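Lab meeting prep.
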Amino acid sequence: MKTGVTGLYSPRTVTYLGLWDVGHLKLKVYGVVAAGKELTSTMIDDANSFVVQDLPPLVLAEGDDNGLGFVIIHPGDLGISVLAHWWIQGSVLCQHIRRTLWGANTPMDTAKRPVIACVWELGLINAEQQLWRDTMMIDQPDSGAYLNAHAAIAVV
């Protein structure tokens, strides 16, 4: 068994990139960028294509969605990750991810490597779940307030 730290904790830059309409979903989009990497328009377009193609049938199959969620595009040290999240049943977060190592022709098999998220992505996921609780798990759920509230973190 391998133990120990495999990488130093180095804060990432987090940027809010706007909203995507994907089918009936409204998704907030964030970029998380490792030091020495950049988030290009090609990466954003590719992430959008992945989300538009893959997410609607998954959301439909899961059912009972709230029509809201968020996407993280993360050019990291080892590759690029795209994490698409959507809320169901008022309090359950679903996820669909694609991870591709730099230089690889195909994404990693997430069924054989069941990664949830890295520590930097988890920080943003945590911030989003707090925004969800504050805006949607209240007496008068407010989807507009959720969509207009952005994770208030400069780095994670």
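Slide two material, second protein:
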Amino acid sequence: MTIGFYENFPSQIHWVESFTSSLPTRQLQQRLIQLLCEINQKEFCFEEITNPTIPEGKIVFEFGLADAQGFCFIDSEETKTATDFIAKTRLENLDVFCAIRYYKGDTKKTPLKFDYYLLRTVFSRNAFEIRVHHERGPRYISPEDLTLIIFNKINEVSEKKILKKSRF
């Protein structure tokens, strides 16, 4: 079983952000997967996420967790499988696919555009790094914004702030 590692992760990285964490690595990894499950396919107003490039636009995220050659959509079943696996196995990184769909106005018929990202989170003691590769799309949400969304959402759902940006 190779949960969390994508063998064909690109060598070209478009953004890197480092964080320190007050949680042990396993708990942070489990929290990250649970968060991605919670925001998977949830609709957000563009203004909630970043400066809007589409007036009255909506955004929908779709996340998949790496499994060697591909990615599995992060739903409740995949979340349970992954968090149980992490409880028993030490992982150095988690690779995630992220598709971002953009809609105009209140209609959720056909997305205007898509952004496709690959994220590699690399963990070390009390710290982790997010490496972002932009596969294709208009970059309405930048690689930097994507890392900040994850950072902010993890801290929002926690009782106390568990992540801080590193200053390297």
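Talking points for slide two:
The chain has four helices and eight strands.
Helices lie at 25-39, 46-49, 76-88, 143-156.
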